[in-house]
Write a structure and sequence with these properties.
Number of strands of chain B: 7
Strand content of chain A: over 45%
Largest sheet of chain A: 6 strands, antiparallel, barrel
Structural class of chain A: alpha+beta
Strand content of chain B: over 45%
Shape of chain B: globular
Oligomer: heterodimer
Largest interface: A-B, 39 and 39 residues
Number of helices of chain B: 3
Largest sheet of chain B: 6 strands, antiparallel, barrel
Number of helices of chain A: 3
Distance between the termini of chain B: 28 Å
Helix content of chain B: 10-25%
Shape of chain A: elongated
Distance between the termini of chain A: 19 Å
Chain lengths: 140, 143
């Protein structure tokens, strides 16, 4: 932090956190790959209690060995001023599964804009099982 | 159907290790990613880059403490980015490496004045990451 401005920290409720997540389009999906951690910046939309992302790494994020319940992943998004560090950060832990229904895929593909232009081959839904978030606002 | 990102005024390129570490030096906030009890975890933390090592500071965090205090060095990822929310131009770097808690008092005295908690909290844990693989992506406007 480069400024001396006094800030106040508030914990966000689940509803507030999901609402803030829906106001940005970029986040980071965190997953396990060969027992090691992995992270990719992706874009997202929020649909109810689910975070929908596209990735060319779908098969790595959700592998067959995860079974029908899906893979446990984390998702992080924030909107923080890089200098004053005012803003918010939300971390979701949840289960991810690949969306297979063509109509749902088509609908989500229209809504999602990849950050880096490359072929995106999977639409993934992350059900938000646990959400933590904080906001940092100027102290009044 | 081939899918294209934003209109083709954007150009993305890979950043070298040296450029990625330089970008990281210019930032002071990033994310440490680790596996805790088979579940992937991510935390926002403050960082500095010293001698090509990344040093992060965080308030007391039982998961970080238990994962990184284990004997041997644990594989983690450190990620930082600076992306304009409106144009989505910017950069993202990812460093993979082994990490361990800094417990040597002399080292702690050296790093404590250099790092400040991003939420303003006191820093209790300091972690050193030795980056092995460092990759970066820069998204700029096409000139």
């Amino acid at each position: 932090m480069r400024t001396g401005q006094a800030r106040q920290i508030n914990e966000l409720s689940r509803e507030q956190a999901l609402e803030l997540l829906g106001t940005v389009s970029l986040g980071r999906v965190v997953f396990t790959r060969n027992a090691l951690p992995a992270i990719r910046p992706v874009n997202h939309i929020v649909d109810g209690e689910a975070i929908i992302i596209r990735s060319h790494l779908g098969a790595a994020i959700v592998s067959h060995s995860d079974g029908p319940r899906g893979a446990v992943v984390a998702y992080e998004a924030d909107n923080l001023d890089p200098d004053a560090h005012l803003g918010w950060s939300v971390i979701v832990t949840g289960t991810a599964h690949i969306i297979r229904e063509p109509a749902a895929i088509a609908r989500y593909e229209r809504l999602l804009r990849p950050w880096v232009a490359r072929e995106m081959d999977y639409v993934i839904s992350i059900h938000a099982d646990m959400i933590t978030g904080i906001e940092l606002i100027p102290e009044t | 159907m081939p899918y294209h990102a934003d209109p083709p005024v954007r150009l993305h390129r890979e950043a070298s290790r040296a450029e990625s570490l330089r970008l990281l030096r210019d930032a002071d906030l990033g994310r440490i990613v680790f596996i805790s009890r088979a579940v992937p975890a991510i935390r926002l933390v403050s960082h500095i880059v010293r001698d090509d090592h990344i040093v992060i500071g965080t308030g007391y965090d039982p998961e970080i403490a238990s994962v990184l205090r284990r004997p041997g060095l644990t594989q983690v990822i450190y990620q930082a980015d600076l992306i304009a929310p409106d144009t989505r131009l910017g950069w993202s770097i990812t460093a993979t490496g082994r990490a361990g808690l800094i417990e040597d008092e002399g080292e702690l005295d050296r790093f404590r004045p250099l790092l400040r908690g991003w939420t303003g909290q006191d820093l209790d844990l300091f972690v050193q990451i030795r980056p092995e693989l460092v990759t970066g992506v820069v998204v700029g406007a096409r000139s």
